[in-house]
Amino acid sequence: MEGQKTTVRSIADLARMAGVSVSTVSRALTGKGTLNQSTRDRIRALADQYDFKLNVAAQNLRLGRTGAIAVLLPLGHERGQHLSDPFFSAMLGYLADMLADRGYDLLLSRVLPSGEDWLENFVRSGRTDGVIVIGQSDQGAVLNRTAAGYRPMVVWGAFDATNAYTSVGTDNAAGGVLAAQHLLSRGRRHLVWFGNPEAPEFAARQAGFLSALPDEVRRNTSIVPIPLTPDPAFEAASAYFAAGNRPDGAFAASDIVAMNVAAAAAEHGISVPRDLSLIGFDDILLARIATPPLTTVRQDIEAGARALVDLLMRRIAGEETQSVQFPPTLVERESA
């Protein structure tokens, strides 16, 4: 009837009025996903004009989705590690942005595993549409068991062809080789590895490092188990130097470990790089501003986050996926 006020009862009504798709209206009203700003503003203005409010919970219920992706950090091997770790912070920042661009919220959980069914219990809770696990820790068996019956999951970590899950990560063994070759090129022959080999990623870095050393050098290379958190790493490295050990080259499992090794060395009168050439792993921001700036094996955290999200979206859609392994690069700075 002429003069009757138009009402908007659903997102479909608003989409028809705006001349766009339902998904475009959803992105405009939730602020998620990529959308031209003028289109977003026009749709929001139209929604305001007709006093339409999107019921996100109801929309997700109709679609059979939660609208959230879980990012889990299992810390079975290193229970003292925190989300404030610079590597985690960088990875989580990229993941949060990339998931938001796909229209998902991020549900974050730092997990201290207390049994063999923690991941299966989380999956059964139905709280999220998929899971990204950052680091395998010592939870390989748990990950494989869950992956056998749960498709929307991807894992950041070391590649193993026998794993049931899709993984994304750096070729850690190749990174170890780069570190060994660089120290040898500097004439360093009395070497040491600082790291925690309980996690597959760090075990691969150690194995690659040792594999690239000549037999005589490898036989005289020290292996120093060391925590990955700052204060315990410093204490372990300090104890090593206090025992009279004087290597001339060192490779650390991470940049955080390397910087604490440098601090412990200085406490015992060992200069980096004059007396000790030191290499880290990751290339976090702090590596560039350390004293001295840290030579490190770089893994592309942004590309890794993008691959994790892309592969997870494909698995949610029912596609088959293959694991991805990125080549590392050596970033040469003053420490080695």
Total domain units: 3
Topology, number of strands: 12
CATH topology value of the largest domain: Rossmann fold
The rough form would be described as: elongated
Largest pleated sheet: 6 strands, parallel
CATH architecture level-2 label of the largest domain: 3-Layer(aba) Sandwich
Total DSSP helices: 14
Q: In order across it, which strands form the biggest sheet?
A: 2-1-3-4-5-11
Distance from first to last alpha carbon: 81 Å
- Rg on CA atoms, Å: 25 Å
Tell me, rounded to a whole number, the average pLDDT.
Answer: 86
Strand content of the residues, in percent?
15-25%
Q: Detail the poorly predicted runs.
A: none
CATH superfamily of the largest domain: Response regulator
Briefly note the structural class of the backbone: alpha/beta
Range of helix content? 40-55%
Keywords: DNA-binding, Transcription, Transcription regulation
Domain HTH lacI-type: 9-63
Protein name: LacI family DNA-binding transcriptional regulator
GO molecular function: DNA binding
Describe this structure in words.
- Helices cover 44% and strands 17% of the residues.
- The strands form two sheets. Strands 2-1-3-4-5-11 form a six-stranded parallel beta sheet, with helices on one face.
- Strand 9, helix 13 (285-289) and strand 10 form a beta-alpha-beta unit.
- Helix 6 (118-124) packs parallel to helix 7 and helix 11 crosses helix 12.
- It is an alpha/beta fold and 336 residues long.
- It is elongated and about 85 Å long.
- The protein has three domains: 11-63, lambda repressor-like DNA-binding domains (434 Repressor (Amino-terminal Domain), Orthogonal Bundle), CATH 1.10.260; 68-169 and 301-326, Rossmann fold, CATH 3.40.50; 172-298, Response regulator (Rossmann fold).
- Residues 9-63 form the HTH lacI-type domain.
- One of its GO terms (molecular function) is DNA binding.
